[in-house]
């Protein structure tokens, strides 16, 4: 492979904002695996956000990328999988598997797509110093004849369109809007873009905590919600605390501490088969490897309010943010029923040229 921009390359990143800013270039925020695609003739490599190789996990994309991409190019984009007209991040996670036979079986059962939103190199031209507006024009032209499973991400310069996308596209599994300065060069691994994500709140049961990797202070609080059968399901964690607050929490939570998990709703967390029917902390994960997943059980008697962006199935997609204790809430009242469901929106309407306007 001999390209003007060579792997590995870490993608340009975004910082969070509360509102969609005016006067920018706007795109939907895709909920998939960020990917830098390198193509030089028949050679194709796919790098992850951390510059690790993703190529072996998506064999079905290789021929499609050879067919629909220019012969020599480097693209920034997102690998996504759709089920039932919306993005399915769980299906992506299933791909990170050591067995090649399983990866190929899943490639046939739930094929992935690639959504391109930036162009880092084309032919002999490196475009890292080229402004975004020009890179976008060249990307659209380069992929003008592309077809499923390769797409050009819709984009607009109209902030009102971006605000409408922010509301509508969540129903297709997207999780917000990304704003970029039209004059922005491409800066790998720098947070120069802006992301605006949905934020909602939920009252959750505090059912345990994990220690911080630095020592005997709270690392994360384990959150639970009751399902329709009355079972407490593990829905995620809240983990962003200053070090002093982490120390205070250890003493604050001591009265709720259980000597063992016996009698706790998640008492069976170490039995792999128990995770098949209930969500519990410490489940097997290909991402955590040998990471210590042990946790301290607490009597599920205290409620906290957290902020979250969106759900992935029956859990929070990302780490939830602590807002306040809710001493006025009964833990039994913390159910899935309180969660807001976005209005469904067909993913095909996001990706087809006749769907959302590009806005230039």
From TrEMBL:
NCBIfam families named among the record's database cross-references: PRK08224.1
Record flagged with keyword Ligase: yes
Family per record: Belongs to the ATP-dependent DNA ligase family.
Native source organism of the sequence: Streptomyces hazeniae
Lineage, uppermost ranks: Bacteria, Bacillati, Actinomycetota, Actinomycetes, Kitasatosporales
GO molecular function: DNA ligase (ATP) activity
Record CDD domains: Adenylation_DNA_ligase_LigC (cd07905), OBF_DNA_ligase_LigC (cd07970)
Keyword Ligase attached: yes
Stated name of the protein: DNA ligase (ATP)
Domain of life: Bacteria
Alphabetic keyword roster: Ligase
Catalytic activity: ATP + (deoxyribonucleotide)n-3'-hydroxyl + 5'-phospho-(deoxyribonucleotide)m = (deoxyribonucleotide)n+m + AMP + diphosphate
Domain ATP-dependent DNA ligase family profile: 11-197
EC number: 6.5.1.1
Pfam families listed in its UniProt record: DNA_ligase_A_C (PF04679), DNA_ligase_A_M (PF01068)
Domain DNA ligase ATP-dependent C-terminal as annotated: residue spans: 216-329
């Amino acid at each position: 492979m001999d390209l003007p921009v060579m792997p590995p390359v870490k993608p340009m990143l975004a910082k969070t904002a509360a509102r969609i800013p005016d006067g920018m270039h706007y795109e939907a925020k895709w909920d998939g695996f960020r990917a830098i695609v390198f193509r030089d003739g028949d050679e194709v490599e796919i790098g992850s956000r951390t510059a690790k190789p993703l190529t072996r996990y998506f064999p079905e994309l290789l021929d499609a990328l050879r067919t629909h991409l220019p012969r020599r190019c480097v693209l920034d984009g997102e690998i996504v999988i759709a089920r039932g007209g919306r993005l399915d991040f769980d299906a992506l996670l299933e791909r990170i598997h050591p067995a090649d036979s399983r990866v190929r079986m899943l490639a046939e059962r739930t094929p992935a797509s690639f959504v391109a939103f930036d162009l880092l190199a084309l032919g002999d031209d490196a475009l890292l110093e080229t402004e975004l507006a020009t890179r976008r024009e060249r990307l659209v032209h380069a992929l003008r004849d592309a077809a499923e499973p390769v797409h050009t991400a819709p984009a607009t310069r109209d902030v009102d369109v971006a605000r409408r996308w922010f509301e509508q596209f969540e129903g297709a599994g997207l999780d917000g809007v990304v704003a970029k300065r039209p004059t922005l060069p491409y800066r790998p691994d720098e947070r120069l873009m802006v992301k605006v994500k949905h934020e909602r709140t939920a009252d959750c049961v505090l059912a345990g905590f994990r220690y911080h990797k630095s020592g005997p202070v709270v690392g994360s609080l384990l959150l639970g919600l009751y399902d329709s059968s009355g079972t407490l399901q593990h829905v995620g964690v809240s983990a962003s605390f200053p070090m002093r607050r982490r120390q205070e929490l250890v003493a604050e939570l001591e009265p709720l501490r259980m000597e063992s998990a016996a009698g706790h709703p998640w008492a069976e967390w170490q039995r792999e088969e128990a995770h098949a029917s209930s969500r519990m902390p410490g489940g097997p994960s290909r991402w955590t490897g040998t990471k210590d997943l042990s946790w301290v059980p607490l009597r599920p008697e205290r409620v906290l309010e957290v902020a979250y962006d969106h759900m992935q199935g029956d859990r929070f997609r990302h780490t939830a943010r602590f807002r306040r204790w809710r001493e006025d809430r009964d833990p039994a009242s913390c159910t899935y029923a309180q969660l807001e469901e976005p209005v469904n929106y067909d993913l095909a309407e996001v990706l087809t040229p006749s769907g959302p306007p590009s806005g230039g």
